[in-house]
Amino acid sequence: MWKKIFGKTGQSNNDNGTALLEQIDRNSLPRHIAIIMDGNGRWANGKGMVRSVGHTAGVKALKRTLKAAIALDLEAMTVYAFSTENWKRPPTEVDFLMKLFSDYLEKELAEMDEDNVCIKFIGRVNELSPGLQKQIRDAEQRTADNTGVRFTVAVNYGGQDEMVRAVQSLARDVKAGSLEPENIDSKLLESRLDTSDLPPVDLVIRTSGDMRLSNFLIWQTAYAEFWFTDTNWPDFGKEQLAEALLDFSKRDRRFGGLNEKK
User: Fold this and answer.
1) For residue 255, what are the contacts with CB-CB under 8 A and spacing of at least 6?
2) In the chain, which end has fewer C-beta atoms inside a 10 angstrom radius, N or C?
3) Can 259 be counted among the known catalytic residues?
4) Which residue of the set 16, 45, 86, 215 is catalytic?
5) Span 30-157+200-249: which CATH code?
6) Cα angle at 189 between 155 and 183, to 5 degrees?
């Protein structure tokens, strides 16, 4: 099955990853993994290339990782593609990234649909270009009924901004008289988040060595496990994903309580 899905590229890493993935107990998998895809620029700089080459390589890493998630039948995977703070980058880089998102949808959507992936975008999508917004709407509509991996892409997204928008939504209801403040609880707040249809994040993976959330899913990761690697995102693949999942399976998750088995 694995060779059929992944082909023969990167054979050594592929073989190692396949062996590791086959060791994973499917019953110990997280329901929802979130990935901070960091290190595209560092990867390119280390090879004496421009940053855009790193971003292009990062798209290939994303495809490899999504394919692994599909093979494992993971329930949900959310990736941090572009933050609300990333607009501070040079305009040429921002423009390239927006084109990369557009090209990704154009080239990969049919295959994702065939793989039964349900794709969704979160963040201030309404602030993107009209053309990209239409591609996003079309992609979401085309895959809406798919029952495989729920693949969420955070674009023009910030966790603090998401919280502000959720609170503003509740405040409008209070102002309109349709909601009493004392009736606001965590479940109601969660219903106003961009990820309201997803389970809480079980595992956060961050590449390229930094160890922080960087304003990503700050509510949803309240009890998530974290796995960090020095590997830059373009070099990430099923071997690293398998290592993260195997490590996750050994974690003692108590959610603030005690493990009665110990």
Assistant:
1) 223
2) C
3) no
4) 86
5) 3.40.1180.10
6) 165
Domain spans of the chain? 30-157+200-249
- Residues 6 or more apart in contact with residue 129 via CB below 8 angstroms: 98
Q: How far apart are the first and last CA of the chain?
A: 38
Q: Residue 60: pLDDT band by 50, 70, 90 thresholds?
A: very high
Catalytic residue among 38, 115, 194, 235: 38
Whether the Cβ atoms of residue 23 and residue 248 lie closer than 8 Å to each other:
no
Q: Is residue 120 within 8 Å of residue 138, measured between CB atoms? A: no
Tell me how crowded residue 87 is: count the other CB atoms within 10 A of its CB. 11
Does residue 86 carry a catalytic annotation? yes
Beta strands in the chain (DSSP E): 32-36, 76-83, 118-122, 150-157, 203-206, 225-228
Q: In the predicted model, is pLDDT for residue 8 greater than 60? A: no
* 194-209 pLDDT tens trace: 999 999 999 999 999 9
pLDDT digits (tens, 9 = 90+) for 129-155: 999 999 999 999 999 999 999 999 999
Residue 20 has pLDDT above 80, yes or no: no
